[in-house]
Structure formats: C-alpha cells, structure tokens
Specification:
alpha/beta, 26 strands, eight-stranded mixed beta sheet, about 20% strand, globular, about 650 residues, about 40% helix, six-stranded mixed beta sheet
Length: about 650
C-alpha cells in the first residue's frame, strides 16, 4: 500500500526560478534518451543541492513525466523535515536492509506525477548500503514505472556516498554555491565523479546574488553592443573584428584568472589561520570545562541537599520519590539499530538475542533500565541569537546538560550539549498549532512554547530525539533573569574577569577583580559578542566560574546566617520550572551525597562548529554519538 504525503514549500517559486529549472530540465533532456537516473550532489553542505533536486524532480513531473525523487542523503537528510507534511512510516533505509518492499516505501505526493522515497531512519553504515547489490536492484526495479529518477546524495566533498550512488546512475549534476567554494575544490570533486565513470551532465550555479540586475534586463543593450562589434560598420572585415574580440576576451580571462588565483591563496591562508585559532580556543575551553566540572557537581549537590531539607526530606516522602522515579516502563530505551557498525549476528547470538540488545564492534550491550536521566536548562528569554524567525517568546535554552545517575555503581555522568547543535525541531505557530519539522539550532526549540511547562516539554522532546529517543525522567529550567536576585541574596560574588566585557559594562575589565552585584552579575553570565567566533564557548567558561564562586559564597553565608538557605530557595522557586515533584526532589537530595563524579565523567558532544549563513552551527559526529550513548546508558552483556 503506497504512502501518501503532502509537500510543504516555504515560498512559491517566482517566474525566474521556474524558468531556470525548466531550462535545466530541457538541457538534461537534450543529453539523450538514455539519461533517466540523475544523481544530484555538491561539494559541501548548505549549497542547496537538496532544493535543486526537489525542484528538478517537480519540474519533470509538471512536464508530464512520472518522476521519482530518492532521498539518498541518509546521513543528514533535510527533505523530510523541510518539505514533508504527514506521517511517513517507511523509507530508503528500510528497503536496503530488506525490511520493506520498494514500492510500499514510496510516497505519492500532492504534486501530480511526483513521487518521493524518503531516507528513513539513519543507519550506521550508509556507504555500505548505497553500494550494496540491493540498491542497484532497487534502481533497476523502479526504472520501469518511472520516466525519470532524481537521486539526492550527500556532498561529495564531505563523504564518499555520492560517488557510490553516481556509478549506478546515468548522469550526475553538480550544485555549486556562488562565491562560496574554491575552483580547486570544485575541480577535486569533479575528478572524484570522473573516477566513478559517471557522466557529468553539468554544473548548477546556485544562490547567485541577482539584486539590482534583472535576469532578463538590458537585452537591447547587450545584443546591440554584441551585433555592432561582430558585424562592424559597412566596409570593415567581420573576421578581423572577430579575431580581435577573441584576443581581447582571452586577455581578460587570463588576467581575471591570475587575480582570482591570488585571491584564493590569500583566502586559503586566512582560513587555515582561523581553523588553527578555533582549534586552540576549543581545546582551551574543553580543558577549563573539565577542570570546573567536579567543583560544579559538588556545588549542585549542596544546593539540592539544602532544597531537600527545606522541602522536609521525611523518609516516607523519599520512599514515594524513589518509587515514582523507578516507575518508567521497561520498554522505554534509545531506538538504536540492533547491529551497529557492520557485521552480522552469529547463530549463537541469534538464539539468545533479546529485544533491545545492540551489537557494536563484536560486543553486545543492553540498556541500563536503572539509570535516571535529568535535563537541566538555562533559559534566556531575551537572547540576541534567534536562529528562526518563526520562534515565539518562550526563550532559548542557552545551557543544556544531561545529568545521568547510575545507582548500580553510584556514579553521575554529565553530558554537555552545544546550544548551537543542528537537529530536527518542531515548529509551532503563535496559537500552538504544529506547522512542520525542520533543522535548526536545538536551543530555539524552547522558544516555540509558552515559556513554562509546554516549552520545557518541547525542549525535552528535542533532546530525546537527538539521542535516538532516549528516555528523560525529569527536567528543571531556570531563567537567566533570576541571576541578579540570586546574586544579591548572598551579598554578591567575587570574580576575576576572564575576558574584556567593557562594551557591555565598564567595570568588567579583563583580569580585574570585581565584586559582582545586581545587573552586572547578569551581564557577566549572559553577555557574549556574537560577532566573535566561539563566543558561546567563552561565555560557558564564565558561567562555570561564576556558579562555582556563587556556591562557595552561599555556603559561607549559610554558616553565618541560617536564613540564607531559605532566602535562596525562595528566590529560585519563582524563576524555576520543573516536573520534579517534592517527593522526587527529597529522594534525590538524600542520595546525591553517596554518588561519585570524576573529571572523566564529564562529556561534550563531539562534532564541528561552522559558520552558517547567519549563526554558528554545530554538527555532531554520528559515530561518536553512538559510542557515547553506549558508554553512558548501556552495559555489556556477558
């Protein structure tokens, strides 16, 4: 039974865009009747290849051809999040592992004669699946009912998947973003396509700045000048004029190529310097965060213990909290593939296999059902880095930490999630109605709610999806605006200023010792210069330093005045949203001192931060994420 979906286009294509894709379609048709399966790739991410693939397939369909678009970008697909509205149960990965027939996974769309096969769940071995015999067989099967097949592949400059796909296609189209990719890089990608034996049909120059210059403007001026030069005045020799024109054109091209070569070399040098600087800064931040982690955990334990006493940690209340925390169904676990990283199950393993087990690198793991995971959020309702315009006023989750408590070995592990992590988030309108799912910074998911429980639930769901539906058993969110009141309730906090912040507060001079009070405490933990690459990481170091000193001060003030603890609790409560009930909080406070935490138990998501069109974007390493989940949340099966 074929699936049915509607395609969601953010904006209607204007006349010039439609004409451009009609031209592209016609040029491909002129390449020959044997060109039926077309691979679309690019040099690197964000050049618009998926949009080109979708619009090209749509153009073929609008011309009366029954067309199939295959989403083969299985590592980081954007088609299902950007264009699809409606449920999709099966995808390409299901077909390639033999779980579903090809035709049952194909979706019929609301665009007449256009069909789409979405990527499906992310597999651990996309290159092997795309290079398998099953993928070749699938193309041979779907060639019969479809006039044209457009295959959207990953960027060839990043992974080899596109080359694996292209060798099974009749031709390939390379998408290049204008003024973004160097000539040498494009040439390198072209050479890789040539090695596959795939026929390169052409290059699409995308994202060209057309401002101030109409695409069809100045026809008369252009052609008048051209014809006048070519034919000359009566009595002149046209061949002589044509020769002069070619010589002049060649001279200009050589001069232009020389200048572009110099410009590219200068850009490469600057990019290399920036890359080295980013690496040094990243390593410095990582070291500082790890050194601070143990002190911060101790501070968190003190605060929870104080709150537990204030809540009245009676044994009956704690017993109720323990039961409620342990009431999670055994069926809840991360949705990982049973076999990760290639290989197959041995016959002996199949006979003993249990639901929920995972095999990775010849080792079998099972999810630790006793683990309890809490999501801690720091919310900024006045953030200056909104990554999507559709976001509401719920505030961004500028700090995201997963706290993992393992009662079996009495250990606590913390996973820090980069607020710029690019992942699928759910879009809602101002009335709270779901619009679509699209890729954006994970921190903005909180903003689509009401700033209270709904926002926290949205953010919790986004983190669970990022970690393959990992169960999160509770959350706590604290507003940044509470900092001045918290700071002043302990009489202020002393810090040594780690970086120059005089642009926001004249007192915050680098390396100076400052007693923070009121609003300048908020500036110190909240402000960052978004024009500086990695500013979010630098701010994180200040927040860690401030929180450590805050807890030290609060601890000393509590010794001097027992009412300080009560003042702190009263200050935090109105600014905090949590689903951790009184009995759960009392139970956690009573056991936290028995747990251990070492420097090695603080993890940061591995990946790469890049400069997007408007904001910094962090892309996690999928293999490292798999290993992190297995390391923290699973245990070996003996």
């Amino acid at each position: 039974m074929m699936q049915n979906v509607k395609l969601f286009f953010e904006k209607k294509s204007d006349f010039y865009i439609k004409e451009a894709f009609k031209t592209l379609r016609s040029n491909i048709e002129f390449c020959g009747d044997d060109i039926k399966v077309i691979a679309v790739t690019s040099c690197m991410a964000h050049e618009g290849k998926s949009s080109v693939a979708m619009e090209l397939a749509k153009s073929f369909a609008e011309a009366g051809n029954v067309t199939l678009l295959i989403d083969a970008d299985m590592r980081k697909s954007v088609l299902i999040g950007r264009y699809k509205t409606g449920a999709v149960k099966y995808g390409l990965s299901h077909c390639l592992i033999g779980k579903q027939p090809y035709m049952d996974a194909i979706c019929e769309t609301d665009v007449p004669k256009l069909y789409v096969l979405f990527s499906g769940p992310v597999p651990p071995n996309p290159s092997e699946l795309l290079g398998s015999r099953k993928f070749t067989e699938m193309l041979n099967v779907v060639k019969r009912p479809f006039a044209y097949i457009v295959v959207d592949t990953p960027p060839l400059g990043s992974v080899i998947d596109a080359a694996v796909v292209a060798k099974n296609c009749d031709g390939a189209v390379l998408v290049v973003e204008s003024n973004s990719v160097s000539y040498r890089f494009v040439q390198k990608v072209k050479d890789q396509l040539d090695k596959t034996g795939s026929r390169i049909l052409g290059v699409v120059l995308n994202k060209v700045d057309m401002s101030g210059k109409g695409y069809y403007g100045h026809y008369g001026k252009y052609y008048g000048k051209y014809y006048g030069k070519y034919y000359g005045d009566y009595g002149e020799d046209p061949k002589s004029l044509e020769k002069k024109e070619k010589e002049e054109q060649l001279r200009q091209e050589l001069q232009k190529e020389f200048h572009e070569s110099q410009k590219r070399e200068e850009q490469d040098r600057k990019e290399q310097e920036k890359k080295e600087l980013r690496q040094l800064r990243k390593e410095k931040v990582r070291q500082t965060v790890r050194k601070s982690a143990k002190r911060l955990l101790t501070a968190a334990a003190i605060i929870l213990l104080i709150c537990g006493l204030l809540l009245g940690g009676l044994e009956t209340v704690k017993a109720m909290g323990k039961r409620h925390l342990a009431s999670t169904p055994d069926s809840e676990r991360p949705q990982l593939q049973p076999v990760i990283g290639g290989g197959e199950l041995l016959k002996e393993e199949e006979s003993k296999w249990q639901n929920g087990w995972v095999k990775y690198q010849d080792t079998i793991y099972q999810y630790n059902q006793d683990i309890r995971t809490l999501l801690i959020m720091g919310i900024d309702k006045n953030s200056d880095a909104v990554a999507v315009k559709e976001g509401t006023e719920g505030g961004q989750a500028d700090a995201l930490f997963l706290t993992v408590m393992n009662p079996k070995d009495k250990s606590i592990k913390i996973i820090g999630i980069n607020r710029n992590t690019m992942t699928d988030i759910d879009f809602y309108n101002s009335e709270g109605a779901y619009i679509a799912t699209s890729e954006a910074q994970i921190a903005v998911q909180h903003g689509f709610g009401d700033g209270m429980e709904k926002s926290c639930e949205y953010q919790k769901k986004a983190v669970e999806k990022l970690f393959y539906q990992l169960p999160i058993h509770g959350y706590a969110a604290v507003n940044m605006s509470a900092i001045p009141a918290i700071n002043d309730s302990v009489g202020g906090v002393d810090v040594k200023v780690l970086e120059d912040l005089t642009e926001a507060d004249a007192d915050l001079v680098k390396d100076s010792s400052v007693h923070l009070s009121g609003e300048n405490a908020l500036v110190y933990v909240r402000y960052r210069d978004t024009s500086v690459f990695g500013s979010a990481d630098m701010r994180l170091v200040r927040q860690q330093q401030y929180l450590t000193n805050l807890v030290k001060t609060a601890k000393q003030e509590t010794k001097n005045h027992i009412s300080t603890a009560l003042d702190l609790y009263r200050t935090i409560s109105p600014q905090m949203v949590t689903d951790i009930s009184l009995d759960k909080a009392a139970y956690l406070a009573s056991i936290l001192s028995d747990y251990t935490f070492d420097e090695e138990d603080f993890y940061l998501l591995e990946g790469e931060t890049v400069r997007g069109e408007e904001f910094e974007e962090f892309y996690p390493d999928e293999n490292a994420l798999y290993e992190l989940i297995l390391n923290v949340f699973y245990e070996k099966v003996e």
